[in-house]
TrEMBL record:
Organism expressing this protein natively: Pararobbsia silviterrae
MF GO annotations: glycosyltransferase activity
Protein name: Glycosyltransferase family 4 protein
InterPro entries referenced in this protein's UniProt entry, alphabetically: Glyco_trans_1, Glyco_trans_4-like_N, Glycosyltransferase_grp1
Pfam family, one: Glycos_transf_1
Amino acid sequence: MRIAQIAPLHEAVPPKFYGGTERVVSYLTEALVEQGHDVTLFASGDSITNARLEAAWPQALRLDPSIRDTFAPHIMLLEHVRRRAREFDVLHFHLDYLPFSLFADIETPFVTTLHGRLDLPEIAPMFSAFPQAPLVSISDSQRAPLPNAGWLDTIYHGLPSGLLTPRAAANDGGYLAFLGRICPEKRVDTAIEIAARVGMPLKIAAKVDKVDREYFERDIEPLLATADVEFVGEINESQKPAFLSGAAALLFPIDWCEPFGLVMIESMACGTPVIAFRRGSVPEVIDHGVTGFIVDDVDGAVQALGNLADLSRDEIRAQFERRFTSDVMARRYVDAYASLIRAREPVRPSLCSVALG
């Protein structure tokens, strides 16, 4: 199958550090190539891939201080893909609603995976205007604000099976972990409270975006000295196995409807249980009592941490391999692509209808 993957240009594919969407695009692209498909990746020029790379911009926009209008490079990207659309069997966009108008009437089928939140009131009219645009959700929960959109399937994210693996030597369970990004809805302050309540050290490996710098300095930094907390900062892929494997559990005390939560399956890949609040995709990703515990509040998290001995790290890793590898994700997407292609094929009259005619 000839597949075009169209990624955002904000980060390279894969990103050097934090960047959920571009990271998933990379995992999917490489898995499709490994499965024998002819894949072209439209992304920034500093991306690294085994697919055919079409550089839509020289480098990731995040790394180009001269860029002030990030919308313009994405419009150029879309036009480049539109002119080459006939070269592919399917186009797979990761650009939210940007392709809808430009690609509504082209012959090549396309699909868009929505990676972000959909509960913003200003985007609902956009999806109402394009009800036939095929969409993939990354959790069933993500669909709730737009139940009548053109949903094709729900396909969970996946990681390469060998990317993050348990590190037995690091597996002393001496601390709790928080991984990801510092912002109000991720509630690192709640993670600090949980760790303090159970008397365990907390290591925070997280990115602080410019938009969240004031929040970090005002609300989080003062808390770092009130408990046994180590702020590690942003870490890369090679650092995650030791960081996660060494933790007794990953804390995921979110305060919003997280569409997926990649850090949960990163933790599972390392055999580390997840203590997560019951919001968004959490009940779909975490198998309660198997890969972690789903709780409703701080008291529930404290109680769950007392039951970690009931969980098997080997079974956590096994469940990851069954549900959340990039190979599993890619096969699900290939099925979705095939359904789109079949839907575009002309209906051939049967022999009976020809005879009756």
